[in-house]
Specification:
Two copies of one chain form a homodimer.
Chain A: H1 5-21, H2 27-33, H3 40-53, E1 56-57, E2 66-67, H4 69-79, H5 87-102, H6 107-119, E3 123-127, E4 134-143, E5 146-153, E6 158-164, H7 171-184, H8 195-205, H9 211-227, E7 230-234, H10 248-259, E8 276-281, E9 293-301, E10 307-315, H11 320-338, E11 353-356
Parallel strand pairs in A: 8-11
Antiparallel strand pairs in A: 1-2, 3-7, 3-10, 4-5, 5-6, 8-9, 9-10
Chain A binds a DNA duplex (30 and 30 nucleotides) through helix 3.
DNA sequence: TGTTGGCACTCTTTTCTTTCGAGTGCTAAT
DNA sequence: ATTAGCACTCGAAAGAAAAGAGTGCCAACA
């Protein structure tokens, strides 16, 4: 069934208005606002049909209409104007992103914070790493009891650890170990770090003091951590700005879920093409806690064939258009910095491809 | 004016009960609970006096009593039983702390999260660093366009950065720079990194490609960041568990303040002796946003003559005793790991020294 | 056939009263 | 100094009434 042009306009008007006010919207308001030249009575008839088609609902018989998840889905897929931020806004966002990223801190978590600030919803950033390996292994000798392990990973991040030993080691041993690890532990994934490998390294280095196992433990730790997807959530408290979360218990439930690094993505979410935006509306979410919230997620290219996601969570009554536009810019910025480099240049407004569930279960 | 023994018992009972129930407590309840052999009428008289002395207040004439900040202060300073956790609880906390700290992540923020979990209040962790200097400077040559800077600071943390250059550098230059930075940039604080120093280093290294300034920029960045006090806040959402924050606006205000890394400490808060616990009750806080909340802070020894703080924020109706005990253990754990090493061993219950404002402005 | 004004009806929200009860303050007795 | 007793206060809860927004539907109209 395809909707008449007028029904579409009305549906869009209901969503727009409801998003703005958080109140069920009545026929009069629509007649006044949407510039279709007909009276509220006509609109009432149309509204009644939209309800029976499942796009709208009423909290009770004598109230206005509000969109159902299906209504939002229609809106997102077909009706909404893909908002493009003005050049100024785009530049403002890029400016703030650059400013953040100049510092040496964790890029991803900073961008998550920024996303939350920009949208005024809680934001989350996820990284899923493909198998990570060690690219380079260095050990810096500091003094007889101290050395620094420096590990460069295949995704070009660098990790280090200062090790203080209860025993003295000589510089020679450290050099030997450095060389051995550099040849033996590079290019392999976590599960290839076997006790066997560690033992043979220990023997080859002629290490009688157990230094090898300390270093190996660090290697395992780094690989494990780097391979684990990580999530950063920020701005949970902004949920309280939304009228649908004025109930502290409800807010607390969702915030708790989010702070726990809650898991948000549908299991089928093989991260899409970078640049795409995914919208999950209400019951389309898999997590029980999100069944009456919506999630908008942008995918970015984290280089090394890896993708990450940055998204926000809010009530289903969400300003999908604005959020999508902002996330798109942030994701593009991240791709530009982390990714292979074929991302569009900063100034360019890239096409907003918004995808969602098909809507049929 | 010193309180009679009985008044003290009654005051303590009021606080205990009010903390437990969050409801004003009546004379009957006290008569039933506190085992002092007298009737509710007698207690009413005493209560009336405690009100006129300023320790208690009534929301309205015919309601029970609740403690004023001054009442809490008295309770914290003199009345409350310094709670000691059972050995099991202590061990449980230490176990969880060890578990957390095994991972290579940021110790401080992890402990902050742990503090929040244990107390069910929002927690914050602060570090204030004394002047930090660079202790050691290494540059690892990766390939013609890439090297890794590794910097070890006076507080024994290690920072690194991967640098990718648009131009090629040869290994010799990198080695020269490494040596020069190691001699010229160690032992100095941020403000000693002058353009002059950078220039002379550049000339000495015979660097025509501006590599020096990249490295110097990193040095400045690291020193700046390390010297800046940092704050980690976690579990803001737990505020919503407290009945006094059922009003979403109130909760939001405070949560926003906290997430902003809000600043909590009285300006005079030269961090005290490690091991001490400080309690700030309601209006004793300087920040306007905290005037009707309380803060409990434990100081830990972060080594290198530096102290940090870990604390929680909650309503004035807070379980001071339990919170203080838990924070004390966490702070001791941190001191043991970060500090000079003269911290008490893990098993030992260390004395709880609870200090607060004197109460007189 | 689609559109419109009109109007009775429904159901929530708000406001006002009433009732209820916990807890007090005071007095008189012990 | 303590206690029992009792009238009184004041908020919270419950109930009743009024207000208002918006609908559904009908009859009239283009």
């Amino acid at each position: 069934m395809v909707l008449s042009e007028r029904k579409k306009k009305i549906l869009a008007a209901v969503v727009d208005e409801y998003v703005r006010t958080a109140e069920p919207v009545g026929s009069k308001a629509i007649a006044a606002k949407a510039g279709l030249g007909c009276s509220s009575a006509t609109i009432r008839n149309e509204l009644a049909e939209l309800v029976s088609l499942g796009y709208l609902e009423q909290p009770h018989t004598s109230a206005g209409r509000m969109p159902t998840p299906m209504g939002y889905r229609m809106y997102v897929n077909e009706l909404m104007e893909k908002q493009r931020l003005s050049l100024e806004e785009t530049e403002e966002i890029n400016r703030r992103m650059n400013q953040k990223l100049r510092e040496l801190d964790d890029t991803i978590s900073d961008v998550s914070r920024l996303a939350s600030q920009l949208t005024d919803y809680p934001a989350l950033a996820l990284t899923t790493r493909t198998a990570v390996t060690i690219k380079r292994f260095d050990i810096i000798y500091v003094d007889a009891n101290t050395f620094i392990i420096v590990v460069m990973l295949s995704d070009n991040t660098v990790k280090n650890k200062l090790v203080k030993l209860p025993v003295s080691v000589d510089q020679k041993l450290v050099q030997r170990l450095s060389a051995l690890f550099n040849s033996g532990f590079t290019g392999i994934t976590e599960d290839a770090v076997t006790p066997l490998l560690i033992n043979s390294t220990e023997r080859a280095a002629d290490d009688t003091m157990g230094v090898t196992s300390v270093i190996a433990a660090f290697a395992i730790e780094v690989l494990t951590e780097a391979a684990a997807p990580s999530a950063y959530v920020s701005g949970e408290n902004r949920l309280l700005n939304q009228p649908e979360f004025r109930d502290p218990d409800k807010a607390h439930r969702l915030m708790g879920y989010l702070s726990g690094g809650g898991y948000i993505l549908p299991p089928n979410a093989n991260m899409d093409e970078a640049g795409e935006i995914k919208v999950l509306i209400g019951p389309e979410n898999v997590a029980e806690e999100l069944k009456d919230s919506s999630v908008v997620i942008a995918t970015y290219d984290a280089g090394d064939n890896t993708r990450g996601m940055i998204g926000v969570v809010g009530p289903t009554r969400m300003d999908y258009s604005a959020v999508a536009a902002k996330l798109s810019i942030l994701a593009a910025g991240l791709s530009r910095r982390l990714g292979g480099g074929e991302a569009p240049p900063e100034g360019m407004h890239n096409k907003l491809i918004i995808k969602g569930d098909t809507g049929n279960e």
